[in-house]
Amino acid sequence: MKILIKGNNLSLLAILESQVSFNKLNEKCDKIFGSWKWIANKGNLGHTYRIILGWNSNLFDVNLIDFNDQVIHCKVSFPSNNKYVFCSIVYDANKYIDRRALWSSLVLHRGFIRDDPWIIGGDFNVTLNLSESFAGSSKISKGMMEFLECVNSLEIQDINSNGASFQISQCSYPLSGAEAVS
To answer: Which superkingdom is the protein from (predicted)?
Structure first.
């Protein structure tokens, strides 16, 4: 992860499905992020972290707004030009019934931010189109329909993917709540 950050000159990084246990979080984040600040959200079983978000606080500020086991909602501010963007980092549940909590959270958050700039990114564990499905199903699932309903309700657009489809990469740290560290 350190090589990825340095090699790509990253200033903000979200780690999804980290699997970092509570007792290893500080150690792993200190090793990966160094002097950066970071936050993490607890998984629904409460013994590992699902999403870890790290950022270079010399370039911008990140303020935690809300979180649950599937999303971290935050505001990223750029002090150099007084601009900001709201961000929602998602690592959605595997079962469509469990994803409903995320859809509700996103709709509620949309009401909070109104017409301000908003980026939603991460792993939704569901696709909007059959052509994006790794499973190769030939019919639209209930989970896909509910995802589409959420996207339409939020009045957002899916940005087409770029690069290899279904690419899986591993990091050198087996990373696995929200805790903020300054």
So the answer is: Eukaryota
